[in-house]
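chain below, 208 aa
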Amino acid sequence: MTSEPTRDPFSDPLLTPENSALIIIDYQPRQLQGVRSIEHELLLRNILFVARLAKTYNVPIVLSTINVVAMNEPPTLPDLKEVLADVMELDRTQMNAWEDVEFRQAVVATGRKKLVMTGLLTEVCLAFPSLDALREDYEVFPVVDAVGGISCESHRAGLERLLQAGAQPISSVSLACEWQRDWARVETVSHHLHLFLAAQCGGTLNVG
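prediction:
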C-alpha cells in the first residue's frame, strides 16, 4: 500500500504538530483536590501523556497557573512541571485565563489557530478561556480524559457548554494518533509507541 502525499501540515483540517498548540491551565495541587469526575491517578497519567506528546512533536505549549504569587498557591504539579521544565509558567489571578494579557499574548505568539485545551476545573478554568477563544475564531479541542470537574455532572455540563459553542472534543489517544497520522513518519514512531504503551500501562517514562 502507498500513502497519499503528506497534506500541507499548516492547512490540514485535522490536527498536526505544525498547526496546533497545547494549552495547559491550572494543574496545581489545590485544583486537583477539587476534581471528583475522574480518578486523580488516571487524570495525572493522561495529562502527562498529552504533555509528553506535545514535547515529542515539538508542539508549542502555553502553561498557566493561578494565584501562585498573589495567594502563595503551590505551582504546577511536580510530575507535570518536570515534563515542562523549559516552559514558562504564566501566573495570574483571573479565573478566566483569556482575561490575562500575558496568557493571551502567549497564545497569539504560537501562531496557531487550533488550540488543544486542558484545564482544571472543566467547568471554569477550561470552559471560560475556551469560550473566549472560540469567539475569537480559534478552533478548540478539549482533551476530555485529561480534564476534570468538581462532579461528574459539572464536568459534563462544562463540556456540553463548549460543544454547543463549537468546540471539538478529543481524547488523549485520538490526539496522539492525529498528530502521528502515518506510521511511515518514522522519526516519531518509536516515541509515539513508547508514550502510548507506558500511558496505557500506567508506568513511568524516561524518553530521551
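Strands lie at 20-25, 61-66, 89-92, 114-119, 139-142. The first strand starts at residue 20 and ends at 25.
thats it, cya
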